[in-house]
Amino acid sequence: MIYQFYFAADQHTRLFNLPLYRGFGLEPEVNSAIARRCPELATAAARLQLVEFGGMLHLWRNPPDDGHDWIGFTSYRQTDKTPITFDCAREIEHLLGWWDAVAWLPIRFHGSLAEQAECGHPGILAFLERVLVAQGKILPAVLGRLNHGYFASYFLMTKTTFHQLMTWLYPAIAYGLAVQTDPYILSHPKSLGYALERLFMIWYLVERKRVLNYPQYRTFCAADWQTNRPSASPLLPPPNPT
After folding, report:
1. ∠ Cα 100 103 107 (to 5°)
2. Domain locations along the chain
3. For the whole model, what pTM was predicted?
4. CA–CA separation, 12 and 125 (whole Å)
5. pLDDT for 30-52, tens place per residue?
6. Tens digits of per-residue pLDDT, 184-207?
7. CA nearest 57: which of 69, 47, 67?
8. With contact defined as beta carbons under 8 Å apart, do 99 and 169 qualify?
């Protein structure tokens, strides 16, 4: 299932009325169960800090029984950005047999990902470094070389990969919510969400996840693009490994 995040009742009309999509409210007014097993989501300030990652946290702590072994995310704002939608579960299953993840809204900046992040959110790189150092990790230099990538809001992966992502990402969520006097956190009500988007990029880069740019069949892996169409028909099963 692809969960389409929204915040308010008046956004409900912008959700896709499609079989593989399900609206998911991020505020109690549109989802009374949002904080179930998620004490981090009990306050409005924390929910605003986490934005869509609050929905991902909920779905990680409360695994949905939706009949699929994959999970995806989009936003009510997708209608402003791209018309691409999915209507065939078999195609998604096939693609995830070949790639670690599928994305359909690539972003490209004039400068590097690091430059764009710091320009848009001053102090974010120092904050990312603090988050990663607290976990014994480093800020990868690849952020200073790449100018393109993906945000988590427009992404598909298996539920196993989703669990890997959230296991990797949760220490940063906990850290960000615990340091509310950090100057970067104080700089904007959604500052933690902006940092989590860049940490999401770091995750798929350092974990060398192979991301399909759909529907162009271009593979993004550790800063490299390549055209890689697996078969003439996207519904043909991938070959067995030899």
Report:
1. 130
2. 2-227
3. 0.89
4. 35
5. 999 999 999 999 999 999 999 99
6. 999 999 999 999 999 999 999 999
7. 47
8. no
